[in-house]
Design goal:
Layout lengths: L7 E4 L4 E3 L11 E7 L6 E3 L5 E4 L10 E10 L10 E7 L14 E6 L6 E5 L17 E6 L4 E3 L5 E4 L9 E9 L9 E11 L7 E2 L3 E7 L7 E8 L9 E7 L6 E5 L5 E6 L10 E10 L11 E11 L6 E2 L3 E7 L7 E4 L2 E2 L8 E5 L9 E3 L5 E4 L10 E10 L6 E11 L7 E2 L4 E5 L7 E4 L2 E2 L11 E4 L7 E3 L5 E4 L11 E9 L7 E13 L5 E3 L2 H5 L6 H16 L5 H15 L3 H12 L4
Parallel strand pairs: 1-7, 8-14, 16-22, 24-31, 33-40
Antiparallel strand pairs: 2-5, 3-6, 4-5, 6-7, 9-12, 10-13, 11-12, 13-14, 15-17, 17-20, 18-21, 19-20, 21-22, 23-26, 25-29, 27-30, 28-29, 30-31, 32-35, 34-38, 36-39, 37-38, 39-40, 40-41
Helix pairs in contact: 2-3, 3-4
The protein binds 2-acetamido-2-deoxy-beta-D-glucopyranose (2 copies).
Length: 600
C-alpha cells in the first residue's frame, strides 16, 4: 500500500485545506471520502468540495503526524473514480509550550569575595516545542532579579557572580528567566530561582569592643580566678572569627595572663601570681587579639590591640613581721624580766591597724617568757638553765587590733648562753690502790674531771689537795696525778685513806668542788702487783650495804637494852660492829660509845 500521492501539509489547528483532484471538473456527481488515522474523528472532509478541516485542536506535542487516504467516488454508484491517494498530515509546531526549569529551584554556594565571573551553578530549562522548527524552543536565559551581583550566560545558563562580601549579605535569591523564541517578543517564558549562599572567608580582623578597658581587682584575688573580660569581635564566622588573646606589654612582673573563653570568645584576664597592693597599685597592660586563622587575603595574621588598666584594690591582710625567724640569745643567769629581744610586725594595709603580740603558749608550755602585747618585747619570766635547755624556740603571733582574724606568726629562737654555774667534779668515783712497799713519787691515780658548763674555749681544770702539806700524798696541779710521798704505808697502821681533792675550773668566776679519792693500802708482790687488800673494806663501798645497816640497827637496839643483857653476849655484837668502824667516821664514833658505855 504505497501511497500514490504524498502530500505534506503543515496544518494549523482549526485550519482547513483542500484536496484537489483532476477529476473534479464541477461534476456534481462525485464525492470525496477520507480514511486513515483520525478520519472522521480528528479530520473531516467536505464531500462536495474536498475541503479538509480539523475537528479539534491538534497538538504537535501529542501527535506530530497522521497518515490518511483520500478518494473520489461516484455519488450514485459509490464506485471509486480513481485510486485512493495517501497523504501525510504533519502538524506544524506552534509555540504553545513555555520553557520549564525541571530541576529548579536551585541552590548554590560560593566563597565570599570570589572573583567576578566565578561560577555559582548552572540552570537548564527545557521547552517541549519543536527544537528543529522555528524558534519555539530556542531559549535565552536572563536574570530578572539579582543584578548586578549575578550574571548568567544567556545560552548556557551558567550563573556567575561578581565579588561580594558575606558580611554585607549572606544569602541572595536570584530569579532567572528562560525565554523561547530566541528571547524575542511574543516568546513564552519560564522562571526559576537560585538561592546563593556566600561562604565565609577570613576577610575581617578581630576588633576589640573598646580601645581601653579598666578593671579593679582585689589584691587577694586567687590565682587563676577571673579578674576581668575583654572581647574582640570578628565579623567573620566560625573558625575565621576565633581569636587568641595575649599580653604584650605592661606585665613586667609576669603576673597576668589572658585565656580565651571557648563559649563566648572573650578573653579572661587572670592572675598567675598574687597581686600586692602595697608594692604596685595599678598596671597598664597592652593586650592583643589575634585570629587563629591567617588572613585569607594577605595571608598575614589579623590582630587588634587594646589597653587594659588594672587597678589593684587593697585587701585586708595580716600584719607582716620584720623577719620570719628571730634569733636572740640570753645568758642563763639573766634576771627575771630581762628583755631578751623584741619582735615587730606591721599592718601594711592602708588602714594601718595597731598590732598586738602574743606568745603561742603551745610552744612555751613552761611559760618561760613573756611578751609585751604592745611593743613585742620578750622578757624572761622564769630562770633559765642552759644545761637543761639550750634552745627555746617559741612562736609569736601578731594580730590586728581592728580585725582579730588577721594573724601572722614568726618563730623566735632563743639561745641560752653559758654561764660558769657548774663546778667540775670527778669523772667517776675513783678508788686507788697503794702498795705497802711502793716507791715514793709513784703516780697512784690520775684524776679526770668533768663540768656541765660549756665554755667556748674548752675546759682547763686545776687539782689540789684540800689539806696543804699533806705528809702522805701530793697531786700535780694540772694533770691530776696523785702521788705517794713516802714508802711507809702499813696496812696494820691504816689500810684506807680518804683523800679530799679540790677541782677548780677556769671560768669567770672559777667554780670548784671537793671530791674524795679512796686509797687502799694493799700488799703487793716484788714486782709491785697488788695482791691483798683489806677484804671487808674492799667489799664495802663508802655508803652502807644492806647487811651492814641491819647489823648497825641490831647493835643500836642491843645498846638500848644492854643493861639487862649478860656481858659475854654483848661482846659478840660489838665484834660485828667493829667491822663497820672502818667504813665511816660516824660509825666509828658510835662504836666507841658502844665500847665504853656498857662496860662501866
Ligand atoms: C631552735 O632553733 C635553732 C635556730 O633555728 C636551731 O638551731 C635549733 O636546733 C632549734 N632547737 C630546737 C629544739 O628546735
Ligand atoms: C699520814 O699517814 C700516817 C700513817 O702512815 C697517819 O698516821 C697520818 O694521820 C697520816 N696523815 C694524814 C694527814 O692523813
Amino acid at each position: 500500500t504505497q501511497p500514490n500521492c504524498l502530500l505534506v501539509l503543515e496544518l494549523w489547528p482549526s485550519d482547513w485545506f483542500q484536496l484537489h483532484t483532476d477529476l473534479d471538473m464541477g461534476n456534481k456527481n462525485i464525492k470525496y471520502v477520507l480514511a486513515g488515522e483520525g478520519a472522521g474523528t480528528i479530520f473531516a472532509i467536505n464531500e462536495r468540495t474536498g475541503d479538509i478541516h480539523a475537528m479539534k485542536r491538534l497538538d504537535r506535542e501529542e501527535k506530530a503526524e497522521y497518515t490518511l487516504t483520500a478518494q473520489v467516488i461516484d455519488r450514485d454508484t459509490n464506485q471509486p473514480l480513481e485510486p485512493p491517494s495517501e497523504f501525510i498530515i504533519k502538524v506544524q509546531d506552534i509555540n504553545d509550550n513555555p520553557p520549564q526549569f525541571i530541576e529548579g529551584p536551585y541552590k548554590g554556594s560560593v566563597p565570599e569575595m570570589s572573583q567576578v565571573g566565578t561560577s555559582v551553578t548552572r540552570v537548564t530549562a527545557t521547552d517541549a516545542d519543536d527544537p528543529v522548527y522555528g524558534n519555539s524552543a530556542r531559549l535565552v536565559y536572563s536574570i530578572l532579579e539579582g543584578q548586578p551581583y549575578f550574571s548568567i550566560d544567556q545560552t548556557t545558563g551558567k550563573v556567575a557572580l561578581a565579588g561580594m562580601d558575606r558580611e554585607m549579605r549572606e544569602e541572595y535569591l536570584v530569579v532567572i528567566q528562560a525565554k523561547d523564541m530566541g528571547g524575542h517578543m511574543g516568546g513564552l517564558s519560564g522562571t526559576t530561582t537560585v538561592t546563593v549562599t556566600l561562604t565565609d572567608i577570613n576577610d575581617n580582623p578581630p576588633k576589640f569592643t573598646k580601645g581601653s578597658y579598666e578593671f579593679t581587682i582585689p589584691e587577694d584575688l586567687g590565682i587563676g580566678k577571673p579578674g576581668g573580660r575583654v572581647k574582640a569581635n570578628d565579623r567573620d564566622i566560625g573558625e575565621n572569627a576565633k581569636s587568641t588573646y595575649s599580653i604584650i606589654g605592661g606585665d613586667e612582673r609576669d603576673i597576668f595572663e589572658i585565656v580565651t573563653d571557648a563559649q563566648t570568645q572573650e578573653g579572661i584576664l587572670r592572675l598567675k601570681k598574687p597581686l600586692d597592693f602595697e608594692s604596685k597599685k595599678s598596671y597598664n597592660l597592652t593586650v592583643v587579639a589575634t585570629n587563629i586563622r591567617a588572613d585569607s587575603i594577605t595571608g598575614g595574621p589579623y590582630m587588634d590591640q587594646a589597653m587594659v588598666k588594672v587597678i589593684v584594690e587593697d585587701a585586708d591582710e595580716p600584719p607582716v613581721f620584720t623577719k620570719s625567724t628571730y634569733l636572740f640569745d640570753v645568758h642563763e643567769n639573766a634576771a627575771i624580766n630581762t628583755v631578751i629581744g623584741a619582735v615587730a610586725a606591721r599592718d601594711q594595709d592602708t588602714t594601718h591597724s595597731q598590732v598586738r603580740y602574743f606568745i603561742d603558749r603551745h610552744t612555751d608550755l613552761e611559760r618561760q617568757f613573756n611578751i609585751n602585747v604592745d611593743d613585742g618585747k620578750i622578757t624572761l619570766a622564769k630562770p633559765l638553765d642552759r644545761e637543761t635547755d639550750m634552745w627555746h624556740n617559741i612562736t609569736v603571733t601578731a594580730t590586728e587590733v581592728r580585725n582579730h582574724s588577721q594573724i601572722s606568726r614568726a618563730t623566735v629562737a632563743i639561745k641560752v648562753l653559758d654561764i660558769n654555774d657548774n663546778a667540775p667534779e670527778f669523772a667517776t668515783e675513783y678508788e686507788a690502790f697503794l702498795c705497802e712497799n711502793g716507791k715514793p713519787g709513784k703516780v697512784i691515780q690520775t684524776i679526770n674531771a668533768v663540768d656541765k658548763d660549756n665554755p667556748s674555749q674548752g675546759h682547763t681544770f686545776h687539782y689540789r689537795l684540800e689539806m696543804l702539806n699533806n705528809p702522805n700524798f701530793t697531786i700535780k696541779n694540772n694533770l691530776g696525778n696523785v702521788i705517794a710521798k713516802h714508802d711507809s704505808f702499813r696496812r696494820q697502821k691504816q689500810d684506807t685513806y680518804l683523800l679530799p681533792i679540790v677541782v677548780t675550773d677556769d671560768g669567770e668566776p672559777p667554780m670548784s668542788s671537793t671530791n674524795t679519792l679512796t686509797i687502799r693500802v694493799c700488799g703487793c708482790s716484788r714486782e709491785g702487783i697488788v695482791q691483798s687488800c683489806n677484804v671487808e673494806a674492799f667489799v664495802l663501798p663508802i655508803g652502807l650495804s644492806m647487811g651492814a645497816l641491819i647489823a648497825i640497827l641490831a647493835c643500836i637496839i642491843l645498846l638500848l637494852v644492854d643493861v639487862l643483857v649478860p656481858f659475854s653476849y654483848h661482846g659478840l655484837v660489838c665484834d660485828i660492829e667493829e667491822t663497820q668502824e672502818r667504813a665511816s667516821n660516824h660509825q666509828r664514833r658510835r662504836g666507841r660509845e658502844g665500847e665504853h658505855h656498857p662496860l662501866r
